[in-house]
Amino acid sequence: MNDDVLWLHLRSAVTIFRKVLLGLTGQDLTDVMPGRVLPVSASPPTEVGLVVGKEVEQIAELLRPGKRRSAEARARLLPLMSLDRAARGKTEPPTEGEIARMLRAVKEGADWTSVFPGVVGLQLVGSPRPSEQVQEISLKIDPKRGELPVRLAHEGEDAAAYREVDTFDRYSLKLSKLGEKLGLTQHQGLAVAHALDLKSDKKYFNAKLTTRGNVAWQGLSNHALEYAKKALANGLDVDEAVAKYNRRNRTPRGSKK
């Protein structure tokens, strides 16, 4: 990645550490370190949009016919995708399909604000103590858009930033992998999903069917994973969940429980 993109990631890391330290101890990072050492760079970028826009142009140049530098273009795209996904609250790494779609969009000349909608609202804001020369990266709505509440846009609705995505990009965690993500066995993961009734809520679960009506994919969202982690932390009895799940599977379909 180029220096400016690297700065965005490093500056984000410092900002996150500062907020965590303040939240846990009430102590500001600038109370224990000189503010002059925290900016990471002597000449940081002044606007996130300029950094991303310039980098997208350079990636598009690498993808021009005859260049044959797709591997380099892919490598430079990944940090931008990481930044965008973090801004949109996505914690799972991008799939190869997502990476391919992004590369195609950049190659076709799509505007960077539509390719990376999460970065649109990402701005550099100053330190609460101006004398400390501390740059931070913070999420906030672009003031040019007005003071609008943030929520998912409905299909066809006017929005500051809206991007059509594959439904299953939102349900990237395979149901059978839930146990692994929770530090459990596959069977225990399925039992937890059943105990929490994840399949009944579109926020957590979606399935893809074949033309014959058979299940081709069962996916969970990041919301489902966080919900399951929280349930375990709050004392969900996995053994009891497994017992109920086993009883449910032994019950013939159509019979009364």
What are the defining features of this structure?
257 residues; Multidrug-efflux Transporter Regulator, Chain: A, Domain 2; mainly alpha; 3-stranded antiparallel beta sheet; two-stranded antiparallel ribbon
Largest sheet: 3 strands, antiparallel
Number of strands: 5
Strand residues, percent: 5-15%
**Percent range for helical residues?**
40-55%
Q: How many structural domains can be distinguished in the coordinates?
A: 2
Distance between the termini: 59 Å
Strand order of the largest sheet: 3-5-4
| Integer-rounded radius of gyration | 22 Å
Mean pLDDT: 77
Shape from CA axes? flat
Global structural class: mainly alpha
* Element-by-element helix/strand order: HHHHHHHEEEHHEEHH
Low-confidence stretches: 128-134, 138-149, 160-168
Question: How would you describe this protein?
Answer:
- The protein is mainly alpha-helical.
- The chain has 2 domains: 3-143, no CATH class; 168-250, Multidrug-efflux Transporter Regulator, Chain: A, Domain 2, CATH 1.10.1660.
- It is built from 11 helices and 5 strands, in the order αααααααβββααββαα.
- The strands form 2 sheets. It has a 3-stranded antiparallel beta sheet.
- The longest helix is centred in the N-terminal third of the chain and has 23 residues, at 3-25.
- The radius of gyration is 22 Å and the shape is flat.
- The chain starts with a helix and ends in a 7-residue tail after the last helix.
- The relative contact order is 0.09.
